[in-house]
From TrEMBL:
GO MF annotation, one: kinase activity
Enzyme Commission designation: 2.7.1.49
Pathway(s) where this gene product acts: Cofactor biosynthesis; thiamine diphosphate biosynthesis
Protein name, entry field: hydroxymethylpyrimidine kinase
Protein keywords: Kinase, Transferase
Superkingdom classification of source: Bacteria
The keyword RNA-binding belongs to this UniProt entry's keyword annotation: no
Domain Pyridoxamine kinase/Phosphomethylpyrimidine kinase: 17-253
Amino acid sequence: MKTPTSRPVVLCLSGHDPSGGAGLQADIEALLAQGCHAAPTVTALTVQDTVDVSDFRVLDRDWVMAQANAVIADLPVAAVKLGMLGSVEMVDTVLDIMRKLPSVPLVCDPVLRAGGGGALGRDEVGFAMRERLFPVATIATPNLPEAQILAELPNGTADQCAEKLLPYIGHLLITGGHGDETEVHNRLYARDGSLHTFTCQRLPGSYHGSGCTLASTLAGRLALGESLTSAVESALDYTWRTLRDAEAPGHGQYIPRRLPLEL
């Protein structure tokens, strides 16, 4: 017998990764683990594996709008998660989509580089996200290298990047793990000046899809009604566990093991 779902719906606007480590598959798996329903809308197609990305193609604006409109007309969207956009035109497309969802929390993962270092859009895409999308987003989740690009501070610290970016967005989570420190420091900044620092043990190796996992999990926790700071902490804890239990199915980076919370 069919029954209405009680799982909150998260609209995911992200790229497709054929290796299954990042992109929409990461979103779907992480959201299922939170008890949410993922509504995946493809923004771009990539040629990549667990080593790096070699090519990508951004989808036509009309195709992306049609996908999103179909979801919005049919499903009660409780949160939106942004991943790879790949072009300035896609930034504008997302703005048009968000005008249809004015009160829905938006988690912006500014995907500018693949885990292996390959570019997933020109820096101008990042600047367009900063100028146009950040003001309508609830929170952005860049890692430190992405924050440095967005803030135009190539050697900036997390604090310096946050100072430059907070005029555009109310909350900013800058994730660590890109240095050689024994503990990873993830910093949640707010425009009101508050700061929460979450530390975790540094794990060996490098990981493919960790940022997607974190951002989609955070969107799921917000969709479930969790407060922002608590949702960030829950998302960081879950993501760390997926990295701790990560697998290496290919010749490159580890892929997070995104199992349901009870497993």
